[in-house]
Amino acid sequence: xxxxxxxKGSTLLQMESSFFFLNSSLSLFFFFFSxxxxxxxxxxxxxxxxFFLFLCxxxxxxxxxxxxxxxxxxxxxxxxxxxxxxxxxxxxxxRAARIKNVRIYDADHSVLKAFSKSGLxxxxxxxxxxxxxxxxxxxxAMDWVKENVEPFLPDTHIRGIAVGNEILASGDQELSExxxxxxxxxxxxxxxxxxxxxxxxxxPHSQGVFASSFPPSACNxxxxxxxxxxPLLEFFSQIGTxxxxxxxxxxxxxxxxxxxxxxxxxFKSNPGVYDAKTNLHYDNMFDAQIDAAYAALDAAGxxxxxxxxxxxxxxxxxxxxxxxxxxxxARTYNFNLRKRLSKRxxxxxxxxxxxxxxxxxxxxxxxxxxxxxxxxxxxxKPDGSIAYNIGFTGLKPSSAPSSFLSLKDMRSWGLSAHYSxxxxxxxxxxxxxxxx
Length: 436
Description:
Blueprint: H1 7-33, H2 47-58, E1 73-76, H3 87-97, E2 101-103, H4 109-114, E3 121-126, H5 131-136, H6 138-148, E4 157-163, H7 173-192, E5 200-202, E6 205-206, E7 210-212, E8 220-221, H8 223-239, E9 243-246, H9 249-255, H10 262-265, E10 273-275, E11 280-282, H11 285-300, E12 307-312, H12 327-342, E13 357-360, H13 407-412, H14 417-433
Parallel strand pairs: 1-2, 1-13, 2-3, 3-4, 4-5, 6-9, 9-12, 12-13
Antiparallel strand pairs: 7-8, 10-11
């Protein structure tokens, strides 16, 4: 439904809009003085405090925070493949499965149209390749939002825009310098279109931004990252955006299987890890990784910022040197993760903040480059059959005789792709409703 803008709400938006344009002019003035070259936008350490001084002085102080996550469970719908079901069929699958939160890595119009009137909450992504241009040209950000977001509202529930992915650990200095400017310009575009109370602006990070993460209380940001991270955190704290982290116990385990307890990574019974500084005990690595991020935020001065998991998952297949990449481990991790999120509880360090996470991923993606594991994180195979048995009655691995029919099987009976996916979705719905 379109947002009503009458009475007090309309007055507030008008006030914020007026202050916003003043803020934009002032910040643009200081940006010009902080350029390292005429063609590159670079915010110096001195220009950041000045910008935020004026931001705080001339704003109403009441940012309208957008909420991009309902409940605690979401999923990443990656599409680097040439054999996946049509987006319309995927929507049917997700709705029946009662998975409401979905992230995609671009803003493909066929997906946005398919999600129309579905009720699903969608986060779209701006690719890393666009950031340098958007950081120096606010019109580019505005054009992107007008082309890829605004026309699909309100029928398609776009609740967030992820600006880039894992930038600050990439080692690309130019991208790192461009990230804040791109984030701010995308936010400015959303604000000017009066969508900032509906759409959250974020940028997910890998764990590579941390210098150390064990024990959790010792975690802090790398020295070469903090110069870019701190002003980004300051801006996100102003607009109410959580800190998004891609947390993969699988990656930690496969990098050091001789010293990491597999059961600790899989949420299974194990002695756990004790953090002497905080006097906290961790019985699984997932919680420890999240609390490590909280510790890094504390050390940087942002103790009130929420941590959310933008990606987590476990590969069901890998190369010979990818320890732990098995069907059974993937099944165990994803089953136990789902059960843990369903409890809506926090971590040892932040017990009152329920953990929210997007699982990676909905499908295996056969065109992804890199290790074999990269192509085998999906809960489903490309034909729609389950990638592995996640422990629910009536479901069997697709490689074994099963009462769960694949898309190919149902088509052989003469059923259309749409009704085939409806039947498959009903099976998944039963699967997720029965989660403990």
